[in-house]
């Protein structure tokens, strides 16, 4: 890719809408716009002031035919999204005008932008680091307010600032230790080791705090993979409908109605739940239902959270007992449904099988207990470590792995210090930690990985 060329893309979704935006970025952005835009003021496009809006028309330079009336915005470098000259054309949001204007920008000297290339240029030009660039796509894809706030915090540089502070401390320690190695006659080795151990402890506290937020952050970014399980006709589909607030799943008194997998996104107090309603788990000879049961068991093993529904109007049986035992070491909430009916299920028996699982009494038919379920999910996601959207939250698995690698390297450095190892060995661990954290900002990341990250972006961003 040549950073010196000029790119263009349609930056709004294709389809009918109020406006459509074509974005041009690069050293010739103004010249490309000059060829196709005629301002109503008769002012030359090249003379307009940066960051001002002008009314005019896009015209085909070959025929001078008007294509659409537009608003034109020029943003001179470095005060633009890409830190290059950027020109935006705001036209009507129909398929034809957007496509025709975009085609004219290509004929006038721009080339089609690759996925994420505008943001990549912002990164390469030093306006944002890689973690901030990744926050852009997280902000676009956020499914809840909490997820949006977390992404915005990262875009504003909260994570970058903390990582930079730790890296600066590590670099100072590396330089100090290497000075002791290069100048042994100064007899500063013992003092240096003590200072390094103290600073490593402080840096590790920061990294450990960030790692504590990673589980909650991943949920905000990707959604909590939640699976509803239970025997047929206990109220699984009714629970999905109640959480959705609409009749998404078929509900009947006939056991085995749900044979396929139904998946929906639900917003629970800012937590995105990727919730799946599965087939009722039971022994069956029905071929289609059997496939559904097998799929339910597969999803059961992959879930971040399991909502197991039991029918309080029926006593616990062998199948219920087996399902409860499978919840060992799994994050789960037990829902005792149909609390509005005569109770035949022994709650204490359930508690004896799963003593460490939260158990809630609910009645989906009467909408009882649903608020308690939402609070329980919120508590399990955050686990008291963060408040949704506030502070610095690690939402990206790549960032989490880099922080974990850095933390491990610093632990090894402390062990080397305690073992009276030479400073050379300690420096190796410090430098490994420094390089691991540099992968978050992109400072120490290979070009192939950077290309792969931006390839997941939409074209026009």
- Poorly predicted spans: 249-259, 384-390
What's the Cα radius of gyration? 29 Å
Q: Characterize the biggest β-sheet.
A: 7 strands, mixed
Span between N and C termini? 17 Å
Order of helices and strands: EEHEEEEHEHHHHHEHEEHEHEHEHHHH
Number of helices: 15
Strand order of the largest sheet: 3-4-5-6-2-1-7
Beta strands, count: 13
3D structure, described in words:
There is one protein chain. This protein is α/β, with parallel strands linked by helices and 461 residues long. It has 15 helices and 13 strands. The chain is flat, with a radius of gyration of 29 Å. It has helices spanning 29-36, 95-107, 117-124, 130-141, 145-155, 158-182, 189-222, 236-244, 287-302, 318-325, 347-353, 370-382, 397-418, 423-441, 447-454; strands at residues 7-10, 19-25, 37-39, 53-59, 66-75, 86-92, 111-112, 224-229, 262-268, 271-277, 305-311, 332-337, 359-361. The strands form 2 sheets. A 7-stranded mixed sheet has the order 3-4-5-6-2-1-7, covered by helices on one side. The chain has a 6-stranded mixed sheet with strand order 9-10-8-11-12-13, with helices on both faces. The model is unreliable at 249-259 and 384-390 (pLDDT under 50). A hairpin with an 8-residue loop joins strand 1 and strand 2 (19-25).
């Amino acid at each position: 890719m040549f950073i010196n060329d000029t790119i263009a893309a349609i930056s709004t979704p294709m389809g009918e809408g109020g406006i459509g935006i074509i974005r041009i970025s690069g050293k010739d952005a103004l010249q490309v716009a000059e060829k196709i835009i005629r301002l109503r003021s008769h002012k030359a496009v090249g003379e307009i002031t940066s960051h001002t809006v002008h009314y005019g028309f896009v015209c085909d330079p070959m025929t001078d035919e008007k294509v659409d009336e537009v608003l034109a915005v020029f943003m001179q470098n470095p005060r633009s999204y890409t830190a290059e000259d950027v020109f935006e054309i705001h036209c009507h949001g129909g398929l034809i005008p957007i496509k025709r204007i975009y085609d004219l920008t290509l004929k006038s000297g721009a080339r089609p932008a690759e996925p994420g290339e505008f943001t990549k240029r912002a990164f390469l030009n030093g306006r944002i680091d890689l973690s901030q660039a990744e926050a852009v796509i997280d902000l676009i894809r956020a499914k809840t307010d909490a997820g949006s706030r977390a992404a915005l915090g990262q875009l504003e540089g909260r994570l970058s600032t903390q990582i930079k502070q730790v890296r600066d401390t590590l670099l100072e320690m590396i330089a100090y230790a290497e000075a002791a190695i290069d100048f042994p006659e100064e007899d500063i080795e013992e003092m240096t080791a003590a200072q390094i151990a103290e600073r490593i402890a402080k840096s590790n506290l920061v990294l450990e705090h960030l790692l504590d937020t990673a589980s909650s952050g991943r949920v905000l970014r990707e959604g909590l993979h939640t699976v509803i399980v239970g025997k047929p006709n206990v109220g699984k589909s009714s629970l999905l409908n109640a959480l959705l607030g609409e009749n998404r799943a078929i509900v009947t008194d006939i056991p085995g109605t749900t044979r396929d997998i139904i998946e929906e996104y639900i917003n629970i107090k800012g937590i995105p739940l990727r919730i799946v309603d599965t087939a009722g788990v039971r022994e069956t000879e029905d071929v289609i239902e059997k496939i559904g049961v097998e799929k339910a068991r597969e999803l059961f093993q992959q879930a971040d959270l399991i909502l197991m529904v039991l029918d309080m109007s029926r006593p616990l049986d062998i199948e219920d007992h087996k399902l409860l035992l499978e919840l060992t070491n799994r994050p789960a909430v037990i829902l005792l449904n149909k609390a509005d009916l005569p109770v035949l299920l022994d709650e204490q028996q359930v508690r004896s099988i799963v003593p460490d699982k939260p158990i809630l009494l609910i009645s989906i038919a009467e909408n009882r207990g649903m608020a308690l379920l939402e609070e329980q999910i919120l508590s399990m996601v955050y686990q008291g470590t963060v408040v949704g959207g506030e502070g610095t939250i690690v939402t990206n698995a790549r960032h989490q792995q880099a922080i974990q690698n850095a933390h491990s390297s610093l632990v090894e450095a402390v062990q080397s210090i305690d073992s009276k190892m030479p400073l050379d060995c300690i420096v190796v661990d410090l430098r490994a930690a420094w390089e691991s954290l540099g992968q978050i900002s992109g400072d120490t990341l290979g070009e192939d990985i950077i290309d792969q990250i931006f390839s997941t972006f939409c074209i026009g961003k």
